[in-house]
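Appendix B, record 7
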Amino acid sequence: MDVVSIVIPTLNRPQPLRRAVESALAQARPADLDIEILVVDNSADGNARAVVDAFPAISGLPVRYVAAPAPGVANARNAGVSAATGRWIAFLDDDQEASPGWLAAHVATARTTGADAVFGPAEARAEDGRAMGPFGPYFSRAIDRPDAADITDLSAYVGTNNSMFDRIRCLSDDPPFDTSLNEFGGEDSLLLKRLVIAGRRFAWSAEGGVVEWVPPRRLNWAYVRKRKFLSGQIRSFVPHMLKPTRWGTIALWMAVGAAQAVAAGAMAAALAPIDRTRSAKALATAFGGLGKILWMPRFRSAMYGSGLVS
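C-alpha cells (predicted):
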C-alpha cells in the first residue's frame, strides 16, 4: 500500500494551521492509500505543538509534530522531508485549505501520468471576507491546461505550495532545499529547475485544488510590489545558482526585466491620473522587472525566518 506524507510547514500562525490540518484530516482516501500528516513547526518557542496536540487520532490518522526551530523556509521543508515516511510527499502551506478530493486527485494524476511531481490550482480568498478584487491573480495559481497535462515547461510558474513529489526521484538529495535561501525564498524554484535539468517530469492536477487564504495585511499594493520584486529576483538568481552557471539565461532575464521596468513604469506614470488600479498593476509589473535586474544578494530583502512571514 502506498503512503503519502502531507507536510505542513508553519510559523506563528495557529489559526490558519488548524484549518489546514482539518482539511488534511478530511481527505477522501482511496482504499489502497495510507496518509500521514506532519506539522513542521519553524517557531523558536514551539507554539504549533498546542495545535497539533488538540487533534486526537481520527480514524487511525494521527497528526505528527516535527520541531524545526532553526528559522528558515528551507529548514522547515527539509525537516518535513526528513521526518516523512511516504513514497510521495505532498506540501500544503499553513494558510491553505485543501479540498476533500485534493490528495486523491494528486495521486491519481501521478499514477496515470507517471509524473515525478504534480501541482494543483490555488484559489485566493481574503481572510476577512472582502472581495479579492485586483489582488486575486497575485495570490492564485491557475494553469490553462487539462487535467494530467505535462507542465514541465512551466516549472518556473509553480512552487511547492499545493504539490506532491515522488520522494526518491525528487527529494533524495540531502538536503533537497538549499538552505542559503532560508530568508529570501526561491528554494522551491531552484529545486524544480534542478529536477527539470535532471529529466524529471511534472503534471497538472486540475482537480487537486486548494484555497489560499490571504490575510488583510497582504492586500495592498506595497506588499504586491515586494512580492513581484522577489519573484523577478528568483528568475535571475536561480540560473546563477545552477552548476554550471547559466550566464546566458541570466542576461536574457535581465534584458526582459529592463524592458518591463521601462515600459511598465512609463505606463504606470501615464495611467496614474486616470486609472489608479491599472497604474498600480503596471507598477507591480515594473517592480518585477527591476527584480530581474537587481537579483544580487545585496538587493534581497528577508521575507522568511527570524519571525518573518511572507
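Remarks on this record: The chain has a mean pLDDT of 94. Residues 96 and 212 are 5 Å apart (CA to CA).
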